[in-house]
Amino acid sequence: MSKDLEKLFTGLSGEKADLIILILTSQNIKAHAEGLHKAFDILVSSKDRQKALATIEAYYKENKYNRLKQQLQQIPISSFKSIPAFFIMGLLCLIHVSCLEYHIHEDMIFKYGVSALFILQGETYRAVTALLLHSDARHLLGNMAGLLIFGAPVISLSGFGAGPFMLLFTGTAGNLINAHFHKTAHLSIGASTSVMGAAGLLVAFRITQTGKPFRWNTLLPMIAGAVLVGMFSQGERTDVWAHVFGFLCGVLSGIFFFPLNRTINFPQKNTMALFISLLIIAAALLSATQM
């Protein structure tokens, strides 16, 4: 080895050594590899060492984001191809129009809305039924848009049954926590808790994709999700805490759900999850009629 040459990297595979040589040569940095079999060293002139290190670091930093982009492109998350999401949106629209048509809108809100006072007295079904009701057309359209933006990708990532189940779970859990937080006659309705739960689930999906959930770059989705919660929590009648609890339920449950969902595979998984979701809704409605 020449005296003016220094080892830049050691013990590289042949493929990686070739890549490093190619990168440095493209920047007019002379380098060569020496070694045998699968252990190669990259040598550069001592005067070019710092420039060579900076060049390689810049390449891998840029390439990291390119790989992330490729990974995201491989994930089938098209909102407009999720039939269950459109079915949920249609159901919400049908319920709202029916309530207006039969002039029972206010009665339904009072009987089925999330009332902290009544939930604490045992009417827990309200945490589910409130997700199906909306105050007006603007409220309904806002949540339908939220389901298209956040809910549909969750369903695409999770499955036609597991996705709706997680939306129902996060919305219900968020409403229950919100009721116990207020402990008053506080009343709220709408699918926005599930929408925020979906946003939290998407954050959890990104975190669990890395395998190293507590690094700074993997916590960035959490910050972005928190910003989204703030953006979608504007408005005089918005239940901000329901949004916050829905989002947190989505993140926390998603951290456990997505790894399990990737691991557990059997043909009837989504069918069973969808059946359980419908069973929960039916049970909530049945409980409400008996009160």
Structure notes:
The structure is a single chain. Helices cover 67% and strands 9% of the residues. By secondary structure, it is mostly helical. The chain folds into 2 domains: 5-73, 2-Layer Sandwich (Alpha-Beta Plaits), CATH 3.30.70; 79-289, Up-down Bundle (Rhomboid-like fold), CATH 1.20.1540.10. The strands form 2 sheets. The chain has a 3-stranded antiparallel beta sheet, covered by helices on one side. Strand 2 and strand 3 form a beta hairpin. Helix 3 (83-101) packs antiparallel against helix 7 and helix 8 packs across helix 9 (192-210). The protein is elongated and about 85 Å long. The protein starts with a strand and ends with a helix.
Entry summary:
With 291 residues, the chain is mainly alpha-helical. Helix content is 67%, strand content 9%. A hairpin with a 2-residue loop joins β2 and β3.
